[in-house]
Specification:
This protein is an all-alpha fold. It is about 75% helix and about 0% strand. It contains 11 helices and no strands. The chain starts with 17 loop residues before the first helix and ends with a helix.
C-alpha cells in the first residue's frame, strides 16, 4: 500500500509543500547530508554547483513531463478509465521519471565520490548502520505483536493512506481493504536482508583505497541497479504484491463515489498547480 497513489513520484514528503521543498532544495540537501558526512568547504562548493545544474535541468526537462503526466492521470480518473492496464501504465511512467533522475544525478555523485575522506566514509556507513538498527528494532516491535494486532495496525495505516487522497472511505471500501489483507506477502525481513547485503557491498567497495575508473564504474552500476542485490524471493514477492495492489486499486475505484473522485482530482490539481508555478 506504500504506492497506493501513482502520483507519489512528484513528492515524498510529510506535510511540506512541493514548492517549499523545491525552492529550498539546496538547504534541505545540506541538512540531510549533514547527518551522514560533514563536507569540507571545497566539497560544498562542488555540491553547490552540481545542485544548481540539477535544478536547472529538472525545471527545464522534467517538470513539463510531470505536468503532462498529471494531466493524463486526471483525465483517466475523470473519464473512469482506471483499469489494470492504465494503472500499470501510470506506474511505469512514474518509474521512468525516477530512472531519468538517476541517470542525470548519479554520474555526478560518482564523480564526487573519490573526494570523500576515510573519516567521511566511516561516518556515512555508521549512520547507515544506525538506521538499519532502528529499522530492526521497529520490525522486532512489530513482530512482537499478535497476528491480530499486526493486522489491525496495517489495515488502519492503509485506510489512513487512502483517506489522504479519497477522503472518508465508505464501508464497502473499508471492507475490501480488510478482506484483502491476507492476499499480500510480508516482505519486511527480505527487504532488511537486501539493504544489509547492498550496503555491505558498498562498504567493501569504499574500503578499497583504489579510486580508479574501475571503482567509479562499479559504484555507478551499484547506484543505478541496486535491485540486482535483491533475493529472488524478494523480487517475486514484490511482483506478486504489485499485481495484488493494482487489482485492489481497480476495485477501490469501482467503489468510489463522485465526492471521492472530486477529492482525488483536487489533490492532483494542487500538485499540478505547484509544478506549473515552479516552471515559471
Amino acid at each position: 500500500m506504500k504506492k497506493i497513489i501513482v502520483i507519489c513520484f512528484i513528492v515524498l514528503l510529510s506535510g511540506c509543500s512541493t514548492k517549499f521543498v523545491y525552492k529550498n532544495f539546496d538547504w534541505l540537501v545540506y541538512w540531510y547530508v549533514d547527518d551522514f558526512v560533514e563536507l569540507s568547504n571545497e566539497q560544498e562548493e562542488i555540491v553547490d554547483e552540481k545542485l544548481k545544474q540539477w535544478l536547472i535541468w529538472h525545471k527545464t526537462h522534467e517538470l513539463p513531463k510531470y505536468l503532462e503526466h498529471l494531466k493524463q492521470l486526471s483525465s483517466d480518473i475523470q473519464t473512469r478509465q482506471i483499469n489494470f492496464d492504465r494503472i500499470d501504465y501510470h506506474q511505469s511512467r512514474a518509474s521512468e521519471h525516477w530512472i531519468r533522475l538517476k541517470e542525470r544525478v548519479i554520474p555526478d555523485l560518482v564523480e564526487m565520490a573519490p573526494l570523500l575522506t576515510e573519516k567521511q566514509v566511516e561516518s556515512m556507513f555508521k549512520e547507515l548502520d544506525d538506521i538499519n538498527s532502528e529499522d530492526a528494532e521497529e520490525r522486532e516491535e512489530h513482530l512482537a505483536l499478535s497476528d491480530e494486532e499486526r493486522k489491525k495496525k496495517t489495515i488502519r495505516r492503509n485506510k489512513k493512506n487512502l483517506e489522504r487522497w479519497l477522503g472518508k472511505l465508505n464501508r464497502e471500501q473499508e471492507q475490501l481493504i480488510e478482506d484483502t489483507y491476507d492476499d499480500y506477502h510480508p516482505n519486511g525481513e527480505l527487504w532488511s536482508q537486501y539493504k544489509v547485503r547492498y550496503q555491505a557491498e558498498l562498504r567493501a567497495l569504499f574500503d578499497n583505497s583504489d579510486r580508479s575508473k574501475d571503482f567509479m564504474d562499479k559504484l555507478q552500476s551499484m547506484l543505478m541497479n541496486p535491485e540486482v542485490y535483491r533475493s529472488e524471493g524478494l523480487t517475486q514477492r514484490n511482483l506478486e504484491n504489485g499485481i495484488k495492489n493494482k487489482e485492489l486499486l481497480v476495485r477501490l475505484d469501482s467503489l468510489s463515489t463522485v465526492k471521492q473522485r472530486k477529492h482525488l482530482l483536487e489533490e492532483i490539481a494542487e500538485f499540478a498547480e505547484d509544478v506549473q508555478a515552479l516552471m515559471q
